[in-house]
Amino acid sequence: MPVQPLPSDLLYTVCDLSDHGFETTEDLEEVPGLVGQERALDAIRFGTRIKRQGYNLFVLGPPGAGKHTAVMSYLKSEAQNQDAPSDWVYVNNFNIAHKPLALELPSGRAQKLKEALRSALDDLKLSIPAILESEEYKTRRQAVEGEYANRQQKAFETLNKRAEDAGIALVRTPSGLILAPAENGEVIKPEEFNAKPKEERARIERVIAELQKELGNIIEHIPSWEKEKHERISELNRAIAVSAVGRAMRAIKSEFAHMKKVAAWLEEVEEDLIAHINLFAGNDGREDGREPLFGAGEEDDRAPMRRYEINIIVDGTHSENGGGAPVVFADHPTLGNVLGRVEHVSQMGALLTDFTLIKPGALHRANGGYLIIDAIKLLREPFVWDALKRALRSRQIVMESAGEYLSLVSTVSLEPEPIPLDLKIVLMGDRQLYYMLCAYDSDFAELFKVPADFDDVIDREPENDLLFARFAATIAAREKLLPFDKSAIARLIERASRLAEDTEKISLLIAPIADLMREADFLASEAGAKQVTAAHVDAAVEAQISRTDRLRERSHEAIARDILMVDTEGEAVGQVNGLSVLQLGQSSFGRPGRITARVRTGGQSARIIDIEREVDLGGPLHSKGMLILSGYLAGTFLPREPLSLSASLVFEQSYGGVDGDSASSAELYALLSALADLPVKQSLAVTGSVNQMGEVQAIGGVNEKIEGFFDICARRGLTGDQGVLIPASNVKHLMLRQDVVDAAERGMFAIYPVAHIEEGVELLMDLPAGTRERNGEFPPNSVFARVEAALTRFAAAARPPMPPRGGAKEGGFRLT
């Protein structure tokens, strides 16, 4: 039986919601989660609850499936039932300033520690200056200073007395103390000294030498006396500091005594405060010989006190989730934004830093909870992927910089103490990226053991229709849209089937459906409607197409003006209308194209030449389809002889790359037409791939391809003979535009379902294809008989001539 055109009811499957008891989305209960994603949600539940290393998640699925919204919503609800994370702070390391210490505190205690320490320091700023200005302190300090001043004065007075008795004067000059001869208390002039007898001069010189030695001893002891003085003053200051600092620190030490590491650091703070008592007297604390804080800015008014600051890295009470465990989305996952960073300040041409300039990263903020990262963004940033894997394996956050990673920076910088890491990483990406990571990164499967695969479609069944309607009601309620009536919901379901390219499925790509609802709501509001109807949804779809339709119109206009040569009437040998789909941005449309074939005897170079492949415009799938044609011809014709065929196939006026095998059936029809020397109807277009057995296989984009040829025919005028041959297995994918359905219903345009290449041959060439009979021949006047006859002629022409009967002489020998 010849293939019959499809009835119009198979070209568009209408959604019937009459059995569901609702009129608008206001009558429907909202859906708490996503529709049809039970497998993915079960995986997310498992991955977030199992407390084992390596069970991080990779959420995979197509863009627009609602992955981010679903994961964020679930994790936030899960996090609300979990404990808030610990607080983490960085503090000064009084022993090694460039290695700040990390302290862990219970949630909410870091701010209390910071406030308590600041309060203690404020008390010391008031109490210690008051003590240092008190009369008691001044008296005790003056007594110590007076004692050493008297000791020094007494030594000089003794020396001066001895000098006077010996007639020597102790003279103070700008260069120091000197001893000189004197008479009556006056230093004598050199000429007077030289006029004295030799024995007198020798005596005076001897006495001066002895006194000079004694003066040297006194001067030599002065530094030790000063040191003793400073030590006694330091002891006095320490005694005062121990009492004052002890009082100030007693309460804070008592409050945090049960935190061993915090208590130990507070002891170091107390010792350092005692040692740097001069900080509270307006002194920078350096006169005691200790080093200043690493990289502290001298121009900062708080610089002397920065060593006692507390840098809060994580405050568990202010988590990203507003309570419970944190849920953090790292939108810009650079190395510093993920691991944290040490900032620097410029002062007088130098870059300085200290522990107060350590900034947390996403790992710090998500520690104890969940961190969500877009996988492709993560992989695009240098060094972050390897650093993240190191953090997950070591279970600690080690701050790294790109400069240190590349060994470009050799200057001394901070080395903050690592912080223990305990969180779940949730990566998001498409399926191809997930499979590539599994294949090419051996660490990936070890660290991300849980894939959560979001599905693309669900079955189009009555219960799922109602579930989809409830989901649409959820979007309408959350977006504050007008109510959608039953007809509008039906149209949304039909549109979702079109997006799924399957009448038996509904697309789960939430983003395009939500966009369509927003735009339909806008059009309904503009029209003053109280509800969104099917007409508003249709108008929104047309508006979406119109906004991206310029290239489609230009392409079809070029065909209509015969710039691109596509015939929609008449017949031609070796020429078939093929169909392709162009995807440009958000626009997807079908475009007809002419496919032609030329044949001749092959001889020793028998082959089918794919011109697209020869000029590197054909992709691997297209080349595969061409090789399948050779297999089909070899298996169908001349089973006992090799083919001696040379043929060329080309997409005419194709100036870009061609890939996919959806045109292989059209190419085969063109080749068979050229071999049989039979014309092909140009009023028909063809799509579908073919296998070596001649079966026509399903292809993608069938709706766009049909509509593309229909638009050209409608532009030139429908004749009633035009149509498209599609694979029979694609019938369940048809969700055509209403104007195409109407034309088919009027008999002005036809869609033919073809299961085997013979069916297409008969439609295109108006002759039976032919089946090989018992005698091994095809029926006379069949298409395949003409094809095999042509191949037989080619084989005979390519066969080498037989040698003369009786043999021939060659080189003196007879060949027999």
UniProtKB/TrEMBL annotation:
Catalytic residues (positions): 662, 705
Database matches in PROSITE patterns: LON_PROTEOLYTIC
GO molecular function, one term: ATP binding
Keyword entries, A-Z: Hydrolase, Protease, Serine protease
Domain of life: Bacteria
Lon proteolytic domain: residues covered: 570-767
Enzyme class: hydrolase
Enzyme Commission no: 3.4.21.53
Keyword Protease: yes
Enzymatic reactions: Hydrolysis of proteins in presence of ATP
Gene3D superfamilies: 1.10.8.60, 3.30.230.10, P-loop containing nucleotide triphosphate hydrolases
GO BP annotation list: protein catabolic process; proteolysis
Name of one Pfam family that matches: LonB_AAA-LID
Family membership noted in the UniProt record: Belongs to the peptidase S16 family.
Stated name of the protein: endopeptidase La
Native species: Tepidicaulis marinus
Lineage per the UniProt record: Bacteria, Pseudomonadati, Pseudomonadota, Alphaproteobacteria, Hyphomicrobiales
